Amino acid sequence: MRPSGPDAFAAFGLSAVPGTDAFWAAVKTPLAVPDGDGWTALFLRRGSRAASVVFESWSAPVPLRRWGDTDCWYAEVRMPARLRVTYRFLVGDAAYADPCNPAGAGGDRSIAATPDAPPQPHWPLLGASDVLPLPRTRLRWTSERLGGRRTVRVHPVGGGGPLVLLLDGDDWLHLHPAAAAFDSAVASGEMPPVTLVFLPAKDRGAEFGCRPALWEAVRDELLPLVAGSGVPADPGRTVVAGQSLGGLSALYAALDFPDLVSRVACQSASLWWTPGAADLADPLGGPVGGTLAARLRARPDLSGLRIAFDVGEHETRMLPHCALVETLTEQAGATVRVSRSACGHDRAGWRHALLRDVAWALG
Fold first, then answer.
1. Could you tell me if 51 and 91 are in contact, meaning their C-beta atoms sit under 8 angstroms apart?
2. What digits encode the pLDDT tens for the residues 291-342?
3. Cβ neighbours of residue 271 under 8 Å, at least 6 residues apart?
4. What is the pLDDT of residues 140-187, one digit of tens each?
5. By C-alpha distance, which of 354, 346, 360, 358 is closest to 312?
6. Which residue from 300, 322, 194, 216 is spatially nearest to 261, judged by alpha carbons?
7. Is 32 exposed, middle or buried (0-12, 13-18, 19+ CB in 10 A)?
8. How many angstroms separate the Cα of 269 from the Cα of each of 55, 181, 248?
9. Contacts of 304 (CB under 8 A, 6+ apart)
């Protein structure tokens, strides 16, 4: 149990009595102190009901404990070195961002980073209540191959340039400010001007598996639509950027559609994927590298491919799948870059790699 009195959270730099107005006025969470080879982070929530801290793809939920009969609820969470993670408070069935944390990711999520996590330059600090501005160019894409309608946003950065297809585009529009981050990176000279295409997914499992329909639709329907929109773009140097199943799909496209996709930035690609694996109790327990490793062992000619692989260093079960595919891709002749981000399977941790690897893919 925590000691009572005004020094309860003194180790975290909080000197006021928990639950008082002075206490809440000083709180900015999470707060972390060194703990062996990692950190102990303090999460605080003000309220009257029990709550839990729920982390994205890193840890089981952690229940908060009440401080006496006050409105202060707290949890001390052991974190490894170098971790950036998305989290939210769960109260009953409702999810909330952390009002004491200025770093938000959409309306109901926040971002925590241990003090030794590498910085993410160019990504603006946005609170959970901030509304991200949307790119002005909006394309209505009615796809015959995929079915249905979807809205595709297009954003020329620095006057426009090579196309950068951002898979899971709605996440990069509404949860993480990719347009602002690319604007900053281009303005600083860290990458050339580009044209961002935010490609939303309607059914990730169906569209991002190793199937041709998505990429046939991109080639025959979406890219002509972008070309006719009047937005400056160079489709000859297109980069595809995808994460998780999106990363799997991007590499698959480079194998099956090399004339369309020859530059790829993929983070934590779902390289465990085989048909039906997602429905198994342990999707990652199948053959290492999944379907794409089996194809790469045949040594297709990938000499025209430039691909950056990144995966969270805390994704212990993903690492063998990714490591094998990285090696096989390079052995097939591709120009390969490999890195590890300070995160688990979490878009908040992939943000710096996205900018860096798109710039590298453009050469």
1. yes
2. 999 999 999 999 999 999 999 999 999 999 999 999 999 999 999 999 999 9
3. 247, 248, 251, 289, 290, 292, 293, 318, 321, 322, 324, 325
4. 999 999 999 999 999 999 999 999 999 999 999 999 999 999 999 999
5. 346
6. 216
7. buried
8. 20, 22, 5
9. 258, 262
Per DSSP, what are the bridge partners of residue 265?
A: 241, 308
Quote the distance between the C-alpha of residue 170 and its chain's center: 12
Structure tokens at 288: 């290492």
Return the structure tokens found at 329. 């891709």
Q: For residue 67, give every residue at least 6 positions away whose Cβ sits within 8 Å of its Cβ, in sequence order, or none.
A: 2, 8, 18, 19, 73, 74
Contacts of 60 (CB under 8 A, 6+ apart): none
- The total of other beta-carbon atoms located within 10 Å of residue 295's CB is 19
How much is the pTM? 0.95
Name the amino acid, one letter, at 226. V
Which residues make beta-bridge pairs with 152? 139
Bridge partners, residue 113, by sequence: 84
> Of 227, 254, 233, 257, whose CA–CA distance to 308 is shortest?
254
The label of the residue with tokens 């935010």 reads: 198
Q: pLDDT tens digit string along 246-304? A: 999 999 999 999 999 999 999 999 999 999 999 999 999 999 999 999 999 999 999 99
Residue 214: Cβ within 10 Å count: 23
Count CB atoms within 10 A of the CB of residue 321. 25
- Tokens 């620095």 label which residue? 158
Q: Give residues with Cβ within 8 angstroms of 298, minimum separation 6.
A: none
Q: Which of 345, 360, 295 is nearest to 83 (CA)?
A: 345
Spatial CA neighbour of 217 closest among 266, 162, 150, 282: 150
Angle between helices 347-361 and 178-187 (to 10 degrees): 40
Bridge partners (DSSP) listed for residue 155 = 196
Q: For residue 91, with 0-12 CB atoms within 10 Å meaning exposed, 13-18 middle and 19 or more buried, which class applies?
A: middle
Structure tokens at 112: 């925590």
